[in-house]
Amino acid sequence: MPIKDMLLPLVGEPSAAAIAAIDKCVAVAGDVGARVTAVAIEEEIVVRPKVTISDDLDNSAAVEAVRSVSDAHGLLKVFDAAATRFAVRNEQKLSRFAAADIAANIAVCARLRDLSIFPVKPDDDRSEKLVERLIFESGRPILMCPEEFASELAVVFDKVVIAWDHTARAVAQSGCRPGRFPASDRCQAFSGRGGFGADRRGRTVGADHRQEREGARIAAV
Predict the structure, then answer these.
(1) What secondary structure, in 3-state letters, does 18-84 show?
(2) Of the ranges 2-6, 60-64, 181-185, which is most confident?
């Protein structure tokens, strides 16, 4: 089944690396003809109430801005520009959650999409928690885009490799089939019990012993 609807979680600041990763994610969605739902998250922080007597009401917007440590509006602007440039059908949402609730809520959103595509920041605990929740709680596949390498990554996938720490049947259900990535020449899947794959015509390709060992190593990561 082809990918028709993607989820793109946006968390953090619109740095140069984040902008490049968002552009790449949108370009990938445009290549497969998918619709993208971008969910920008404002991380809410607890601010201790402070009672003051003042007639200055113009600071209310500034106080509200302090309650968030992420520039969600800036991320949505970057996404909107990329979606327009690549002519990608899209929906944009803005949500605010406490830091502890972000990953769980993103995983819930991902359950309604065919695939999640996520810009991953290097050495970032929040990114790791989000990826973990998406993998184990959304029930959907996830495509990760490392921000530090985004500019070097290709938009069209010649080869697709999927690592799955389970049975061969589970790997087959994870999306390694013709039509999932239409531009791919070959899709290779690995599990702890070995590897197999399918070419563009849907013919099954077996794995040798070296691939089985490599598949077990990848699945164990």
Answers:
(1) HHHHHHHHHHHHHHHCCEEEEEEEEEECCCCCCCCCCCCCCCHHHHHHHCECCCHHHHHHHHHHHHH
(2) 2-6
CATH of domain 5-46+58-152: 3.40.50.620
Ordered by start, the domain boundaries in the chain are 5-46+58-152, 159-220
Residue 108 pLDDT exceeds 60: yes
pLDDT digits (tens, 9 = 90+) for 26-52: 999 999 899 999 999 998 775 555 555
Decide: helix, strand or coil at residue 94: strand
Distance, CA of 114 to CA of 129 (rounded, Å): 20
Q: Which residues contact 184 (CB under 8 A, 6 or more apart)?
A: 157, 158, 159, 160, 200
DSSP assignment letter at 120: E
Question: pTM higher than 0.85 for the full model?
Answer: no
pLDDT tens digits for range 156-200: 777 666 665 555 555 555 555 545 555 555 666 555 555 444 444
**Phi and psi angles of residue 68, each rounded to the nearest 5 degrees, phi first:** -120, 140
Which tokens belong to 155?
């938009």
Residue 100 and residue 43 in contact, taking contact as beta carbons nearer than 8 Å: no
